[in-house]
Amino acid sequence: MISQFLVKKIIKNSEDIQNDFVRNKYGYLAGIIGIILNFLLFSLKFSVGILTSSVAIMADAFNNFSDMASSIITIVGFKLSSIPPDKEHPFGHGRLEYISALIVAFMVMLVGIQFIKSSFKRILNPVAINFELTTFVLLLISIFIKLWLSIFNKTIGNKINSSALKATSVDALGDVITSSVVALSFLSSKFITFPIDGYAGIIVALAILYAGYSLIKETISPLLGEAPDPELVKKINKEVLSYENIQGVHDLVVHNYGIGRCMASIHAEIPANIDIVTIHDTIDNAEREISDKLKIYLVIHMDPICIENEEINSIKIQVESILQRYPIVKSMHDFRIIGHENDKNLIFDIVINHQKSNKNMYEKELKESISKSIKEINPKYKCTITIDKDFI
């Protein structure tokens, strides 16, 4: 309820998330709230840590301080990623949002490393912890604040599809766990004399390190070139196939230059006997309309196929039957026959499952095996097979 109230009061046209201005407002809102709450939590826990001499609480305090810095970097990341395209970066600066999230992740890990050192020192040189009910209650309040902040960032991150805010949400949820450990260790100090504070500090620090590792893994993936969103792939295929005279699609490649900045290319199979001007108009319309609808930049390549040739249709069915023997083969496309009489060449591409490519047979052996099987059915056909990798 609080999240919805803040969004409605601060962000105009909040439902228009395709608008870069509105999307950035969401990022700024999440960042500012993160700065305010994390500063309050840092101040609270730092004071408590000083008063109680607890290294675990101090570790948790500086974790909140790093979260405050993370929120600042997130805001800067949203600001820089919205810079329009220029000569050096024709697809814009959207990936800067990923880089800002990566910086946040490294900061989180740095905090974890520092407090592992502090916790080891506390284990070697234990200090008595003074339990106070007021301090314990304040720690519980901080846990609930962090839980709300995690939910808030996750809600906005999902709404605007922001990796930076999703990462911040995971980080905040990790803080809930670490703060809970700190609170339990603080409570236990009232009943036992064992120097649990240092050990609790190590647990907190390890949790911080794991959160940092998870954030790095989450944010570096799109920078390296991760597979596209399966839902986007389905939408592109469905939209292209909805146009008249497009018989099939393949070789879809999607490049991500930041949220809302995707470039895609796809091959569309069209009847070879259709008027070239007619189908060219169809392709132009498809590129323009789908790009506008899905907020991407789509390029469609035309692949002519023979759909009325009996010989091609007959041997194609036979080849498809052969390919079913190979689980590694996902699909076939660009099937055609070149040559005359008894000197004919079957030319086609197959898409293989790259996850199984190293477990079954090598590409050369696969092509030789398929060619041999086809030769057994009809010796007059030679085969030229191209193996495509699946980029989706």
Please tell me how large the radius of gyration is: 29 Å
CATH class membership of the largest domain: Mainly Alpha
Percent strand equals: 15-25%
Instruction: Please count the helical segments.
Output: 11
Give the domain tally. Answer: 3
Largest β-sheet summary: 3 strands, mixed
Mean pLDDT: 81
CATH topology of the largest domain: the name is Alpha-lytic protease prodomain-like
What is the string of SSEs from the N terminus onward? HHHHHHHHEEHEHEEHE
Structural class: alpha/beta
The N- to C-terminal Cα distance equals: 38 Å
pLDDT < 50 runs, ≥5 residues: none
Q: Helical content, roughly?
A: 55-70%
Tell me what the CATH architecture of the largest domain is.
Up-down Bundle
CATH superfamily of the largest domain: Cation efflux protein transmembrane domain
Strand element count: 6
- What overall form do the CA principal axes indicate? elongated
Keywords:
single chain, 392 residues, alpha/beta, Alpha-lytic protease prodomain-like, Alpha-Beta Plaits, 3-stranded mixed sheet, 6 strands, 61% helix, 15% strand, elongated, transmembrane, monoatomic cation transmembrane transporter activity, transport, transmembrane helix, Cation_efflux_TMD_sf
Describe the structure.
- This protein has three domains: 2-224, Cation efflux protein transmembrane domain (Alpha-lytic protease prodomain-like, Up-down Bundle); 230-305, Alpha-Beta Plaits; 310-389, Cation efflux protein, cytoplasmic domain (Alpha-Beta Plaits).
- Helix content is 61%, strand content 15%.
- It is built from eleven helices and six strands.
- Helix 3 runs antiparallel to helix 4 (96-124), helix 4 (96-124) packs parallel to helix 6 and helix 5 runs antiparallel to helix 6.
